[in-house]
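Design a sequence for this backbone.
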């Protein structure tokens, strides 16, 4: 039996306390976002949860039309691994990314088991479940269904930005603050998205 939305939201706070419920049509999708992935991110093409393997902005727009509500989850005071040079941003933030992805998966799973069968989560930044993703492995040939070989198909989700979601504009619309950081040693905040219906 499907739980009431109020009950679900209260129970999700046991998994992640800091989140806001928003109308799904408040989620901003922009074509330029994937261009930033393609021209500016060192992870481009290295993870199956990143472009070019993820849904396009147009596919994301179509997906969002099937939802009325969403949750924006905030992960504040992210702790980097200071033993790794910040130039290697994925490894610099590895443990924090993994924690955020695990939490978003748990939110999705809990909502699904509560009767919200369309629940779907998205995280931020490249997936951290494997030390090297399939596209990085020597000799691995990618095809249109390479994700079937993913070792974490049950948990791996694309990042919002990988699907064309303008995270800055979206989270600001619901009252969260987010600014560009000029140093990797400034306070870091992650955001995740849970689509529910």
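Sequence:
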């Amino acid at each position: 039996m499907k739980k009431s939305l109020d009950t679900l939201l209260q129970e999700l706070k046991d998994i992640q306390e800091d989140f806001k419920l928003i109308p799904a049509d408040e989620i901003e999708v922009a074509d330029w976002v994937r261009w930033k992935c393609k021209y500016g991110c060192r992870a481009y093409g290295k993870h199956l949860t990143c472009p070019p393997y993820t849904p396009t902005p147009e596919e994301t727009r179509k997906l969002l039309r099937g939802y009325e509500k969403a949750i924006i989850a905030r992960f504040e005071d992210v702790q980097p691994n200071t033993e790794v040079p910040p130039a290697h941003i994925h490894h610099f933030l590895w443990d924090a990314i993994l924690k955020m992805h695990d939490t978003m998966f748990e939110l999705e799973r809990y909502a699904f088991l509560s009767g919200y069968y369309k629940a779907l989560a998205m995280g931020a930044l490249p997936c951290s479940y494997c030390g090297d993703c399939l596209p990085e492995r020597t000799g691995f040939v990618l095809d249109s269904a390479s994700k079937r070989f993913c070792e974490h198909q049950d948990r791996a989700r694309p990042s919002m930005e990988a699907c064309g979601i303008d995270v800055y504009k979206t989270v600001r619309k619901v009252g969260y603050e987010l600014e560009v950081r000029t140093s990797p040693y400034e306070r870091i905040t992650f955001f995740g998205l849970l689509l529910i219906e």
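The first helix runs from residue 5 to 12.
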